[in-house]
C-alpha cells in the first residue's frame, strides 16, 4: 500500500490514479488525519501532494514526523517538496517568478528514480504550477534535474530514498510522470504491481461475507453501472440473502426498466423486484415546474416506495450502495464554509438511518473506470458498462416547466430517436452524455399544407472526463439535420429542434 497525504491540491486524485495504474493499491488521507492513516494502512511508501497553501504561512500543514522517522521512501510533489524541505532543514521562499504551465527539465545527475525513463543530459517536458519555491535543500539531498526557473526542480536523497519535485508528475502534461511514479513505487519502494481487479473481486467478496454474515441485504438498482456492479458483487458473496429493488418512477428512458430487468434475468440469477410506481410519481409531479421542487418530490417518493417494498420483504439489516472512492475522499478545504448547492442530487441518502440499516458499500475504494473493469470481470456486457450516465430524477429534469404525462411521452420518443441516430452514426462512445430536452415553448411551423403550433425539442451532447466540467459535442451539421428531421417527422407534438452549444461551466449538463 502507498499512503498519499493530501494537502488539498486539485489534482491529488490523479496521484492515486497513477499509483493504481502501476498496479499498486493506495489511499488518499487528508493531512489532518495522516497520523491515523499511516498507522492504519501500514504503507510501504508515502507520497505528499501539492496544495494551495504556502509553507511560509503560520499554521500551514505539515507531514506528520512519524513519516520521516519511519525510514520509508517519501515522494514530495510541489507543496509536498516544499514541506519536506521546510521540515528537513532546507529553505522555501515566496517565488518572484510564479510558474504555471509547461517547463523543461534538464537531467543533471543519474538517479534511481529515472531508471529506464530519463538519462543524464536529456531534456523533458513537465507541468509546473506553484508560487513558492525551494531555495536551499536539506542536508543529504542533491539536485538531479533543473528547469530554467527552478534550480531545485528535482531533488533526491538516495540514501534515505527521499525524492521531491517542484512540478506535477501526476498530470498528463508531464508525459513521463506516470513512469516516474511507477518507478517510485516499484523500484524505490519495492512494491509489486499485483493489484488487479480479479484480486480486488476476491478480497471484496470476502469482506462482504464477513460484514453481512447470514443477514439480509437490499439494494436499490437504478440500471446504472455503479449500483449494478455493487449488486453483482454482493450477490456473488451472499447469493439469495440479497434482494434488488428497481423502482420505476416512470421517468426512465424508453424501454429502460424493461431492458435492465431483462439483462439481469437473462445473465444473472438474482432476486430482482421490479416495482412500477410511475402513477404515484407522476401523480405528484404533475404541474410542478420548479426544478428543486421536482427533485425533492422524487427523492422523497423514492425513499417512501423503497421503504414500503423493503417492509413487505420483512426488512433487511443492510442497504447496498454503489458509493465510489471520489465520494468518500474527505476533501481538504482551505476556503472553509459549505459550498453552494447548485442542485439537490437524488440518492438514497437518509434511508439507512430511517430504516435502521447498515451500509454495504463494496465500491468505496474504486474509481469509476475501475468499476467498469470490475463490471467486465463480473460478466456485464460492454454495451451495459459503457452506458452514458443517467440522473436519478430522470426525464423530470429534462422537461423544464410543468410536468405532464403527455410531455414525458413526447420527450421519451424524441430521446429514443436521438440516441438511435447517435448509435447508428457510431458516436455513442465518443460522447460522455447525450439526451433530448422538451422545452415548454410552442412555436409555429408548417407541415404538409397546414399550420402547426407545437413544442421545441433541444438536443444536448457533451464530452467530459468526470461530469464536473464539460464541452458541448461538436457534431457535423449533417448529423444534426438527420436527427432533427427524424424527430419532427416521427414525434407528434414537436415541430422544431435546436442544439445546445453551452459548456459547463457556465451551463450545467442537465437543464435543471
Ligand atoms: P450537472 O447537470 O450538474 O450534471 O452538470 C452532472 C452529472 O450528474 C448527473 N446528475 C445526476 N445524477 N442524480 C444523479 O444520480 C441527480 O440528481 C443528478 N443530477 C445530475 C448528470 O446527468 C451529469 O452526468
TrEMBL record:
Task: Spell out the InterPro entries in the cross-references.
Answer: Class_I_gatase-like, GATASE, GMP_synth_C, GMP_synth_GATase, GMP_synthase, GMPS_ATP_PPase_dom, NAD/GMP_synthase, Rossmann-like_a/b/a_fold
- UniProt-annotated catalytic positions: 78 (nucleophile), 168, 170
**Encoding gene, per UniProt annotation:** guaA
Name the keywords, alphabetized. ATP-binding, Glutamine amidotransferase, GMP biosynthesis, Ligase, Nucleotide-binding, Purine biosynthesis
What species does this protein belong to? Ensifer canadensis
Free-text function comment from the UniProt entry: Catalyzes the synthesis of GMP from XMP.
Catalytic activity from the UniProt record: XMP + L-glutamine + ATP + H2O = GMP + L-glutamate + AMP + diphosphate + 2 H(+)
**Assigned EC number:** 6.3.5.2
Q: What's a single GO MF annotation on this record? A: ATP binding
The entry marks the following residues as binding ATP, namely 222-228
Quaternary arrangement and interactors, per the entry? Answer: Homodimer.
Give the main EC class: ligase
**What Gene3D superfamilies does the record tag this protein with?**
3.30.300.10, 3.40.50.880, HUPs
SUPFAM superfamilies in the cross-refs: Adenine nucleotide alpha hydrolases-like, Class I glutamine amidotransferase-like, GMP synthetase C-terminal dimerisation domain
Protein name as annotated: GMP synthase [glutamine-hydrolyzing]
- Identify the GO cellular component terms for this protein: cytosol
Q: Pathway listed for it?
A: Purine metabolism; GMP biosynthesis; GMP from XMP (L-Gln route): step 1/1
Q: Where would I find the GMPS ATP-PPase domain in this sequence?
A: 195-387
